[in-house]
Amino acid sequence: MHFTSERRLDDGVTEREFTLGDIPGTLWTPASAGPAPLILTAHNNGLPKRDARLVARARRSAAEGYAVATIDAAGCGDRPRTAAEERARAELRRAMAAGEPVDEIFESLVGPLVEKAAPEWRTTLDALLSLPGIGGPVGYSGWAALGIRLAVVEPRIVAAGLFAGGYVPRAQREEARQVAVPLLLLLQWDDEGNPRQRALDLFDAFGTRQKTLHANPGGHTGTPWFEMEDGNRFFGRHLK
């Protein structure tokens, strides 16, 4: 892991950008001394410099005493996309705008993305836990499909907060039954890009008995800010 920049923010949080091989990422660490629990935060379109509301979530968690890290998945954020990926994304946007079935397009795009991202996140986790000031336990926050895979294959993750999108690949819908860690799912009731019933079915499928669903009215980007506070309380119960 090679750090490429570092800056101290107004809230005392330190923000460092890094590369791990060809993977770019960002690490936020709190001002407090001592080993901090770690939250991995992921979005399937990349997080750093891409979405102010998601970066604000990461910074808020760091200010609450967590180390927070993110990386870009292959073909997302700052990582180059292949021509095939560009075509698949364009076709997905076109089909969704036209109200056409998108399941097979989604599978061809997101299924391989999860398969590539999970090993990269586990390698990143190895590197993060070797750093001074980060001691675990480890939580996960964000992209549901990747979170399901990591919750099943990565025993160091002890709790997960997921954005409950309805479009989750078939493999992860099946894997949901194997998830045993505590879960908090955030669902936007009027999400224009994710079928509500699929999200509810996914919540029902999770195998863990410690699962909570928070549903709020509004579209995909309309999650209320107070859910950030509830999320930190959730991680506080399981990581601190």
Topology:
Elements: E1 2-8, E2 14-20, E3 23-29, E4 36-42, H1 52-63, E5 67-71, H2 83-98, H3 103-129, E6 134-143, H4 144-153, E7 157-163, H5 170-175, E8 183-188, H6 196-205, E9 211-216, H7 226-239
Parallel strand pairs: 4-5, 4-6, 6-7, 7-8, 8-9
Antiparallel strand pairs: 1-2, 2-3, 3-5
Helix pairs in contact: 2-3, 3-4
What does this structure look like?
- The chain contains seven helices and nine strands, in the order ββββαβααβαβαβαβα.
- The protein has 240 residues and is α/β, with parallel strands linked by helices.
- The chain is globular.
- The chain has one domain (2-80, 114-239): Rossmann fold (3-Layer(aba) Sandwich).
- The protein has a nine-stranded mixed β-sheet with strand order 1-2-3-5-4-6-7-8-9, with helices on both faces.
Q: How many whole angstroms does the radius of gyration measure?
A: 17 Å
Instruction: Give the total of domains.
Output: 1
Succession of helices and strands: EEEEHEHHEHEHEHEH
Portion of residues within helices: 25-40%
Q: How many helical stretches?
A: 7
Instruction: Give, in spatial order, the strands making up the sheet with the most strands.
Output: 1-2-3-5-4-6-7-8-9
Task: Please describe the biggest sheet, giving its number of strands, its sense, and whether it closes into a barrel.
Answer: 9 strands, mixed
What's the pLDDT, averaged over the residues?
Answer: 88
Structural class: alpha/beta
How many distinct beta strands? 9
